[in-house]
Amino acid sequence: MPDARPTLRGLYAITDAGLQHPDRLIDAVTRAIDGGAQLIQYRDKSGDTRLRSRQASALATLCNTHNILLIINDDLELAAACGAHGVHLGRYDPDLQQARQQLGHDAIIGISCYNRLELAHKAAQQGADYIAFGRFFPSHTNPDAVTAEIDLIRQAKQQLTLPIAAIGGITTANAAPLIEAGADMLA
């Protein structure tokens, strides 16, 4: 872990096991880094623990080589085992305090707040390092996700000091309003 808190800003690339063959993950993430990704979130909901461990370790090496942050989705044990910089937690995952206790003070912990500002306030009070809202636009990877309004980012920026990640259906064609509203990271 770096001594100083990293700046949480920029392109936040999230892997999806359904979008690429497992053997192509590292190449895909390398291209994302070459394209400007500042954070990589490893997200694989499969039950293949060996594959997940192997991929997370390879991503940790890749991200460390490029001085890029690696965040593991949902899995505290995997985050600790592979040496990731932190974890991203949703509503059905371990709570923030458990994550902080297991991963340590320097770990980066992000919290999904969906379309609910009160969840962002709770995350801030508990010591989250960033919050995520979304989905903002239709998404083929998570079509059933709740929809968040762009004004939610403005409200959160006025009320909170945490970095904000926007997620869900974001493309170069629709990203500008999220940035104008104050999103620090786009997934």
SSE layout and pairing:
Elements: E1 10-14, H1 25-34, E2 37-42, H2 49-65, E3 69-73, H3 76-82, E4 86-89, H4 96-103, E5 108-114, H5 117-126, E6 130-134, H6 151-159, E7 164-167, H7 176-181, E8 185-186
Parallel strand pairs: 1-2, 1-8, 2-3, 3-4, 4-5, 5-6, 6-7, 7-8
Q: Overview of this structure, please?
A:
With 187 residues, the protein is of the alpha/beta class. Helices cover 36% and strands 20% of the residues. The protein has 7 helices and 8 strands, in the order βαβαβαβαβαβαβαβ. It has helices at residues 25-34, 49-65, 76-82, 96-103, 117-126, 151-159, 176-181, and strands at 10-14, 37-42, 69-73, 86-89, 108-114, 130-134, 164-167, 185-186. An 8-stranded parallel beta barrel has the order 1-2-3-4-5-6-7-8, surrounded by 6 helices. The protein is globular. The mean pLDDT is 94.
Summary tags:
187 residues; alpha/beta; 8-stranded parallel barrel; globular
Query: Helix segment count?
Result: 7
- Which stretches of 5+ consecutive residues score pLDDT under 50? none
Helix/strand class: alpha/beta
| Strand arrangement across the biggest beta sheet | 1-2-3-4-5-6-7-8
Short description:
By secondary structure, the chain is of the alpha/beta class.
